[in-house]
Write a structure and sequence with these properties.
Elements: E1 2-10, H1 14-22, H2 24-31, E2 39-42, E3 49-53, E4 59-68, E5 72-82, E6 85-86, H3 91-94, E7 100-108, E8 111-120, H4 122-144
Antiparallel strand pairs: 1-8, 2-3, 3-4, 4-5, 5-6, 5-7, 7-8
Helix pairs in contact: 1-2, 1-4, 2-4
C-alpha cells in the first residue's frame, strides 16, 4: 500500500473549512469529483461507523478512528459495501482493510492548510493523484465563498 499526501491552502478559518468538509450538502459537492452523488451516512462521532456511498449503494464501510473538531479527522476503512450491505472481508479487500484516511487542519492568520493523507492500493494511486486535487480545489472554492 502507498500513502498519498495532499495539501491545499484555503483563505478561510479552519472552522469554516471543517464545516465544508463534513456538512452533508457541501460534502456531496466536493466529493462529486470522485463519484457524482457520493454521500456519507454516520452520526459523525469518534468510534462510530461511517458508510461512504454512491447513489447505487456501493461504497466503503469505515469507522471514525479519531476526531478532534476543527482540527483532525481519521477514518479507518474496513470493507466494501455492495447494494447498501456491508460485505465480509475477502481476499480482494484484505489488501486494503485497515487503510487510513486523515484530514488535518492548521490555521495561521485566517489561512487554513488542509493536509490529507490516505493509504491506497497501487491500482488506484494514479486515479487519486489526479482526482483528489480536483476535490480539494472544489473544497477551497466552497470554503472561500461568502
Amino acid at each position: 500500500m502507498t500513502t498519498l499526501e495532499f495539501k491545499i491552502e484555503i483563505n478561510a478559518p479552519k472552522e469554516k473549512v471543517w464545516d465544508v468538509l463534513w456538512n452533508e450538502e457541501t460534502y456531496k459537492q466536493w466529493t462529486s469529483v470522485f463519484c457524482e452523488g457520493t454521500y456519507a451516512v454516520s452520526d459523525w462521532k469518534e468510534g462510530s461507523k461511517i458508510h461512504f456511498l454512491s447513489p447505487n449503494g456501493d461504497g466503503m464501510n469505515s469507522v471514525i478512528y479519531k476526531k478532534n473538531d476543527n482540527e483532525y479527522m481519521a477514518f479507518k476503512h474496513l470493507s466494501e459495501i455492495k447494494n447498501f450491505k456491508e460485505m465480509p472481508v475477502d481476499d480482494a479487500t484484505q489488501e486494503w482493510t485497515g487503510a487510513m484516511e486523515t484530514y488535518r487542519l492548521t490555521e495561521n492568520n485566517g489561512l487554513t492548510v488542509l493536509a490529507v493523507k490516505m493509504d491506497s492500493v497501487e491500482k488506484y494511486v494514479d486515479y487519486f493523484k489526479t482526482t483528489f486535487p480536483k476535490g480539494l480545489d472544489m473544497l477551497k472554492k466552497l470554503s472561500e465563498e461568502k
